Amino acid sequence: PPDDVTNWNIVPSQRDILRSDEVYLRPNFIGKSYPELKTYVDVQMRLLMEDFMQPLRNGMAKLLSGKFQPRDVQELRIYENVTFKRSGLVQDRRRVIPERESSWRIYSVNFKELPRVNWSTSRRLIHGSLVCLWDPTSNDLIVASVVHSNPQELARGQIMLAIESSDAADHFHKKTYIMLESVIFYEPYRAVLQVLQDFTKDSFPMLDYFLGTETDHTPPSYDWQSYTYVLRKSEDSTFIVENLADFSKRPTANEMGLDKRQYEALYTALTSRVALIQGPPGTGKTFLALRIIRSLLDNKNSWQGQNEGELLAKSEISESGASCRNHALDQFLEGVLRLTDKIIRIGSQSKSPILENFTLHKVKSKVREAQNNGPYAESNYPYYFLKMKELRVAQEKTKVKTTSDEASEKKDPTLRFDNTAVTVEEETLVDFAKNQLNRMEFVRDLLSAIPNDACLEETSFHVGQILTMSLRQRWMLFRKWKRSYQEMIEQDVRKSKEDYESQIKEYNQLKGQALAALCRTADVIGMTTTGAAKNRLLLESLKAKIVMVEEAAEVLETHIVCSLTADCQQLIMIGDHQQLRPSVNVFDLAKNYHLDVSLFERLILGGLKAVRLGVQHRMRPEIVRLIVPAIYEELENHSTVYDHPHVPGMQHDVFFYHHNYPEKEDGSSFYNRHEVDMSLRLAIYLIREQKVAPQQITILATYTAQLHQFFNSRKSYELLADVRITVVDNFQGEENDVIILSLVRNNSRNSVGFLRTANRICVALSRARNGLYILGNIHMLANASPVWADMEKVLKEHGQIGEEIPLRCDRHHEIVRKVKRSIDFPIGSFCRELCGAELDCGHVCKLVCHQDELHTSSCPEIITKLLDCGHDYSGPCSRNSENVFCPELLAAYCTELVRKKLLCGHPKRMKCNEDPTEFDCGVADERLLDCGHLFQYACPGKSMDVFILSCERIVDQKMPCGHTQKVTCSKPLTRCLQETVRVLECGHSVKSACWNTTPTCTAIVEKTLACGHQQSVHCN
Q1: CA distances (Å), origin 388, targets 90, 244, 372
Q2: What pTM value is reported for the model?
Q3: Residue 600 located in a structural domain
Q4: Greatest mean pLDDT among 324-338, 448-462, 482-496
Q5: What confidence tens digit (pLDDT) does each residue in 235-251 have?
Q6: Are 553 and 664 in a shared domain?
Q7: 703 in Cβ contact with 670 (< 8 Å)
């Protein structure tokens, strides 16, 4: 190798990006062992770095040569008119710059706004993205990392970047740049590469397996054979095994509720240092993984052990899901939650409400509660409190602020320095150190802007001499002072950088220890492999002894390696290397350097035996015969798959629609409009005419451009809103009742791209439970791949291939309609036969063939029947309110007129089937009330006990005052309303109601006021 990768600067340099010479690479070692760890790390690091660098390098080369085209945006995103502000502190507590990047400075950068980008959902310029700032005048590149961004600031063209300190930094603000962003997210690469650099022979667990020098199953290093194991089929069925290594003492497969292969896989996982379990489609990989975890949790004493009484003694099972498969990880952990509630889900991408209270965020909140307890924190971490105070004092000494600074801070709040009081928060120590660095570097920048062409070397003068100096001498003296002060500041900056780097390291260690202490309360820790690399310090603090990797064959080898620590004593990998391989960005690295070969597959190819599960529980047998033996030598069908329902309205549950409509190219992707239209119309037919639920249908596309075509066309069909449409690669591990597969490729060159790859074919064909409908050109595919050729034979043998899709009436199987174009799909029933279905009432439906839903209406058949009430009924057959025919209830439909007594006691004529309690009476009646009057009314038809009668007759009421008033009999007066005239004490007469004995005088009189004037006022 030309250099030592362990000494690499992980962040690419200008030379790395602009180089045109051949990059030194070696293929992954397949079928042979690595000679040593150094070679292993060298090969893996170079391949991984090149997977990120090559698209970036190619995009830059096209840009510099003037050959950059719009389709090349798949390699680079371009931002124009990029200008720098000054450096400042990032008000963002999500991430601390890693130790290796601690010499970097933070800058606020403006760029030309992009109004068409939806920044709230876009993956552009996210935290951790790598960007290059290109100066077109000099072709110089500045490499930077996005350390702070939010949708509001991005919409205004603002972002914060971290750039490694250099002399060139003094001139950033003088130029305008073009910013280039790699479309490949850099952060996962950075995290994994840094972990690989730090591995040593002592810290690399199970190194003999990774190098390929060990190919036999050896037991874990913990003393599992000395313990009695508890094995369970269920909560009520438990077995005690004194010696797990003794086959004769183990419960049988039937006793454990497992088939033969599942049984073998369970014991391999419990007794092997490295266990490989291959699970073909539908064989229950997750089911088995949960059984293994339950067995490990039931027997923690066999592997947990003790560690000199320290809290770090208890280790957890760390379950690492496939990279970027957060949904799959959530689903798996939801299953683990049924076994134990002591789990923690690390990572911020969980969408599961069930796991909301089990995320690391909740754990961190507990850490903050402890840290915010001042006495607790200061007593346990006095050193860090002292350091924060020292840094604050140093910060105040170097504080320099100009008027322009204050103005810019008011304009851009992201540039403000944090001068708040010391608080015990997660990043406080780091913020103070970073703050100090920013201030001193700003002073250095300010001083460096002053010319330094001539300095006064003679320093022996009196202060009074300054007044006699010439202007030139004064400037020379000033430059001398400036240079001296600048040298002093430079020394302070270097010292502060050393302190900052030291504090970053100690802070990260302290943070990892605090989180690890809380994580140890859990039995299972779940994270993606990318998350494992990013949380390396936490993993090392956890000292996990057992690591399980689900979908291990879909994960890059380096990602699994970075999920392991020196304390790992057992690795259990579950996956299927005959399905999707790990995704890589550079096809050449997969084809010629085997970068897409997972650790799971490489160990199998190197001779380590994997247990392969053999019974599938997902697909109907007609689907399985497409992949057996074309892809898998054998795969047994479980008895339950024979009971899967047929797809309604279709002649075949599996069918290949062959056509010759050509594909179209869109950049590096392809689409086929004919397949889009046919697929959507088929889905509509199943939903509208056959009443298949939209959630039961998934449309799979093999190319991203086709996916976009599906999305655009679906907007016109409201029925398809709940139909899932995705690419094949995103659907591994998932399934649905009906799959519509669009293969896209159709050209005269017989070019099928990755459709010739057996792994992708396997995934595409094994997702359906009940029905699979494939659209493509079978002749072209068969010429390109022997797998498709074998499949064509099977399809032809069973009549499941053709240029027309056969629809079938489920009631009249002989009625078939063939669809060749999207417009040929029927609206409504295409069968014109009489329905003939037997209704619930026993009659036969005589309508033209129709949907079963129409049978819920009344049966029109005329019947004559003696009802239970004794009357004869002649009329249409009918049903009761539950739409279920019941002869005993036919009395409810008798229309004979009879006399029935209402609740009030009056008789009334009504139909036999009518309820008298639902009728109003209305008969004229009268009643003598308690007042002695006779009350006439219309009978309400209810019991008079609940009918309140009130007398409305007008009568004379003799009042106590002697007056007589006209009142309603039921509403007597309590006071007399008779109008009377009263003579008041003032001598005036006033009219008022009889009951008002003290009315107010309203007469107007002339009165002499205190001032002597006359005034007309009310008497009162």
Answers
A1: 18, 55, 15
A2: 0.74
A3: yes
A4: 324-338
A5: 778 888 888 888 888 99
A6: no
A7: yes
